[in-house]
Design brief:
mainly alpha
Length: 124
């Protein structure tokens, strides 16, 4: 099993294990954007520490990093090729895509992230 697929399987297993503890809307694109948006919106570390919990920052960064890592290993019709595995770039791309497509806010975040990254970083 390739690294990207292994990472995705592990991530989805962890996510499904947490599912019973999460509220129904915790896996929507809007919810993830609300958690991640604070990271990009704030410019100084001091301001950031006042507006986002360590848990939210870690969760957001981990989710985005996993999706950045697995892009090149997906099926051709789902594949994307980000230039760097830097979560802030991924968070910005996800939030920009969601701003342009507000009708997707109540969808699960997994396909929305893939769509956002495919639009931002198509493979050449």
């Amino acid at each position: 099993m390739c690294n990207g697929l292994r990472t995705l399987v592990i991530f989805l297993l962890v996510l499904s294990a947490q599912r019973s503890a999460l509220a129904a809307d915790d896996n929507t694109a809007k919810h993830l954007s609300n958690r991640c948006g604070k990271i990009v919106a704030n410019k100084s570390n001091a301001e950031l520490m006042k507006t986002i919990s360590t848990y939210d920052a870690g969760y957001c960064s981990a989710v985005i990093r996993v999706f950045l890592s697995l892009g090149p290993y997906l099926m051709p019709e789902m594949k994307y090729c980000p230039p760097d595995n830097i979560p802030l770039y991924g968070i910005a791309a996800f939030n920009q895509y969601l701003d342009a497509h507000p009708e997707l806010q109540d969808e699960k975040f997994y396909p929305v992230i893939i769509q956002a990254f495919r639009e931002k970083w198509p493979c050449k």
